[in-house]
Design brief:
12 strands, Lipoprotein, single chain, outer membrane lipoprotein receptor (LolB), chain A, 241 residues, 7 helices, twelve-stranded mixed β-sheet, alpha+beta
C-alpha cells in the first residue's frame, strides 16, 4: 500500500512540474524578447483606441497624462510639473485647449500676471480655445492627442532586449521585456488575447505609463460654438511646458 501511495505521489508531482506555463495564453511568452516586442508594437499599431495614464518626461519637462486616444483624435487632461493643468481635445486636425484662469493669465502676462491679465483670463475659463495650426504650440500639444505618434515615442527602448519576469497588470497576466538591463526601458505585454503593451517604464527613468481600454470606442466630437472662443494670440509653448 505504501509503495502505491508513494508512486502515486511521484506521478502527481511529475505532472505538476510538466505543466505548460503558457497554456491558455496567447503564446507570446514562448517567443524571444525581440519577437515579443515586435508583437506588442504590431498590436498597438493595429488598435483603434487606447487609454494612456501616467507620467512622461520630454525635454526636461514632466507631464502627467490622462488621455483617451483613437485614430481620429483624442481627449483628456495634461498636467505640467510646476505649471498648470489643461484639457486637450482634437478631432481630425482641429485642436482645442481648455484651461483655468491661472493658465490664461500666464499667457497674458507671463510669469507675473497682473490684475488686468487675470480679468482677461477669466473670460476664457471653462472655454475651448482653438489652437491655430500655424501656432508653435499646435505641434507640441497635438502630440499628446496623436495615438500613433505618442505610442511610437512611449514604446521606444534602448539596448539589448531580454525576457523578464511574468506578472500581472490590473489582473491580466503579462510577460516583461527589458532593454539595457532595464535602464533602457521595459514593456509588460499581455498574455491574454492580443499582446498589447499594458505598462511601460521609459528609458532613463523618463516616466511610467499604463495603457488600458485597448479598442474600447468612445465619442469624440468638436465642442459646440457657445463653448468655444477665439484667443486671438499666439499660445506660447513655453507656458504650456
Amino acid at each position: 500500500m505504501l509503495a502505491l501511495v508513494s508512486a502515486g505521489t511521484v506521478t502527481a508531482l511529475s505532472g505538476c512540474a510538466g505543466e505548460d506555463p503558457d497554456a491558455g495564453t496567447n503564446g507570446v511568452g514562448k517567443l524571444s524578447a525581440t519577437r515579443i516586442e515586435k508583437k506588442a508594437r504590431s498590436a498597438a499599431k493595429d488598435a483603434e483606441a487606447v487609454r494612456v495614464d501616467g507620467s512622461v518626461v520630454s525635454k526636461g519637462q514632466t507631464y502627467r497624462l490622462k488621455m483617451r486616444l483613437k485614430k481620429s483624435g483624442g481627449v483628456g487632461e495634461v498636467s505640467a510639473e510646476g505649471g498648470s493643468t489643461f484639457e486637450l481635445l482634437r478631432t481630425d486636425r482641429d485642436l482645442y485647449l481648455k484651461a483655468g484662469t491661472d493658465f490664461w493669465a500666464q499667457q497674458e502676462g507671463g510669469k507675473k500676471p497682473d490684475k488686468n491679465d487675470v480679468t482677461a483670463a477669466q473670460k476664457l475659463k471653462g472655454k475651448y480655445v482653438k489652437v491655430p495650426r500655424t501656432d508653435p504650440a499646435y505641434k507640441q500639444l497635438s502630440v499628446f492627442t496623436d495615438m500613433s505618434t505618442l505610442l511610437d515615442g512611449l514604446l521606444a527602448m534602448e539596448g539589448k532586449r531580454k525576457t523578464g519576469e511574468r506578472g500581472e497588470v490590473d489582473g491580466t497576466s503579462t510577460i516583461r521585456v527589458t532593454a539595457g538591463e532595464g535602464r533602457g526601458g521595459t514593456i509588460d505585454v499581455s498574455l491574454k488575447g492580443h499582446p498589447y503593451p499594458l505598462r511601460l517604464q521609459r528609458p532613463g527613468g523618463a516616466g511610467t505609463v499604463r495603457l488600458t481600454d485597448w479598442n474600447d470606442g468612445f465619442a469624440l466630437q468638436a465642442p459646440k460654438k457657445d463653448q468655444t472662443v477665439d484667443y486671438g494670440k499666439r499660445i506660447s509653448p513655453e507656458q504650456t511646458g
